[in-house]
Amino acid sequence: MITAEEAIKKPLPAPDGDTAPLWAGLHEGKLLLQHCRHCHNVQYYQQQLCRACGSDELEHRAASGAGKVHSFSVVHRAPGPAFKSDVPYAVLLVELAEGPRMISTYTGGPPEDVTFDMAVQLVLEKVSDEITLPRFRRA
Amino acid sequence: MPKPQRDTIRGKVAVIGIGLSPTGKVPGQSPLALAADASLKAIRDAGLQKAEIDGVLCSHAFASPFHRFSVALSEYIGIAPTFSNTLQVSGATAATMFNVGAAAIVGGLAETVLVAGGDSLLTGLTPDLALRSMTESRDQQYEMPFGIPVANTFAMTVHRHMKEFGTTAEQLAQVAVTSRQHASRTPGAQQTKPITVDDVLSSPMVTTPYHKLDCSLISDGGAAFVLVSAEKAKSLGIEKPIYILGAGECYTHEHIFLMPSLTVTGAVESGRRAYAMAGYGAADIDLAGIYDCFTGTLIMMLEDLGFCKKGEGGPFVADGQMTYGGQTPTNTHGGLLSFAHSGMPGSLFHFYEVLQQLRGDCGVRQIAGANLGLVHSLGAGFATNATTIFGTEATL
Predict the structure, then answer these.
(1) CATH superfamily of B149-216+245-395
(2) What ipTM is given for this predicted complex?
């Protein structure tokens, strides 16, 4: 069980063996996607195997940063104390130009601006000495 | 009508005992206390002694420190079962306990299985911590840093559904209105005051498109059931055993961004498997209990479980087809939206209602001639889906 004190802190990713390159890449200004050399599947979620064909021949390539809003929801009631000062904010399900989808949040304008299939562009936001979060603005 | 799959668990296991703890706001009762209360009621309802329980299946409780809830519950009520597990597939856990319990009985792992759950989300956790504990089930690297509550995953699915099929906020609201009408006749329901579509639409926005009244409750409560083989039910002289006719499950993704389609869920396959086993179709179902964590969730499930065509869930609900006199009365107890939602046990209340209806014990809420009922549990932004179909002796 978590304490009230812990609940006030915003959760930050703790990179692990699978995700260290992703978070290091973001910190260096690139959103790294895994491209399968075998079947050309592209994945955002970092793992040791291609989800489509099982090959372990995965290659990191930087995403263009272009995408569109597949769906979204504007949060008015925060999920716990950590996000209370941020509301309202738009959580986005972005479909990247390379294919994979990812969860992010809208930046650079009021959440009311967000519409379905709106073109968006990656914005990197440094939130700690180790972590940079990928967010999106209107393209 | 498709041929029932008689080489499966179909018709071989019966529910012979049902129990419900106090529900809603129940201060001073731990998750174990609530589950134990329901369990002893279910065992008594079955006419058994607790020592006759040799299998225990439980859901996890947010407000309980016990990871092995089924083991802790057994200790709490003073039994030493020889089959036990605490299952965890979020909101779908309820149906999986029936499915797994039935398989354990048919496979000879246990003879008399207690299915139980209890949690105190309302009084055992502060509201912020209750929400936070829900969000902890989301991915800590890819989802949580963006402040995505589990509500948000469901919101994004129905939001896309509105865009693709023209489902309206008013149609979503109608689910809340109908559920409230149902709850007004259910003893122990947490919210019974009538509401209108306007009330729903003018309640505070939680996460678009969901207003406060589109969201399920936060509650305390538990429920429990006793399962035995059909032969044992007969030898015990059980008056109205309710048989498990079909079971199906489907797990399409873990992360919402890897959900294959936001508008077509794993309930399609989960339902298809359950119908195929039962040898019945959606049109045969007399009543349904469907996981309604949000109003739109229920609309999408009515479609994916085949009660109406894809994209027509909104009009189906607005046309009164989910209530008395309609095609498939659904959540006649009021559901998670108005009866109670105590986390993973929440879906057990749907089971309690459907089983009570099939026994003919629902009084003013009774659906005349209810013989075939479907319960669908789901969780984690449609990551987990599980369906169970029940029937009376007449449906075997």
Answers:
(1) Thiolase/Chalcone synthase (3.40.47.10)
(2) 0.94
